[in-house]
Each structure stands twice: as C-alpha cells, then as structure tokens.
Amino acid sequence: RISLKCFHCGTELFFVDRISLREECPQCRNDVHVCKNCAFYDAKVYNECRESSAEVVREKERANHCDFFQAGSALGGGGKSKEDLLKAAEDKA
Predict the structure, then answer these.
(1) Which of 20, 73, 78, 24 is nearest to 47 (CA)?
(2) Contact (Cβ atoms closer than 8 angstroms) between residue 42 and residue 80
(3) Angstrom distance (rounded) from CA 6 to CA 25
C-alpha cells in the first residue's frame, strides 16, 4: 500500500500498488505522478532532483514519465519549495 500527501492541497492519498501516470487528486484535481510528489524531489539541488540519472523535467507540477518516481511526502524529501527558499534569501538581503 502506497500513501502520500498531495503537493498542492495536502490531502492524504492511498494507492494499492502503484501510482499511474493519469492519477489525479480527488480533492484539487491536480496530477499525482509529478516531481513535487516524488521522494527524489529537492528544491535545493541541481534540476531539483536527487536522482542523478533522471531526465530533466521542466514542469515539476505536471504528470511526467519519469521511471524513477517514488511516492514521497508533499514536496518530496526536499522540505521547503523553491519559492520559499528564494523568498527567505531575499528577506535576508
């Protein structure tokens, strides 16, 4: 059984064995098989992905065919989003 939180609305989602490319969050209707729901997503690293063999994905909030996708927590394992990090940097300047 697979569980994750939607990156967009935080709804807890459950899946039997895998997350298909066409899965949508029933609450907000956003795609589920996206970078921001992946365990490898990390806004602080190159290409925002900790899997070095993964292809570059430009749209992190849209469904993609990445073979390395693994369900993670909301915003993957990376914690704060890229926007949050940029705002924090600007606030310190």
Answers:
(1) 78
(2) no
(3) 7
Mean pLDDT of 22-39: 95
Report in angstroms the alpha-carbon separations of 20 from 16, 59, 70, 83. 11, 18, 11, 28
pLDDT range class, residue 90, cuts 50, 70, 90: confident
The DSSP letter of residue 11 is -
Are the CB atoms for 75 and 41 separated by under 8 Å? yes
- Residue 61's region, left for phi above 0, alpha for psi from -120 to 50, else beta, is alpha
- Mind listing the pLDDT tens digit for each residue in 44-65? 998 999 999 999 999 999 999 9
How many other C-beta atoms can be found within 10 angstroms of the C-beta atom of residue 43?
A: 20
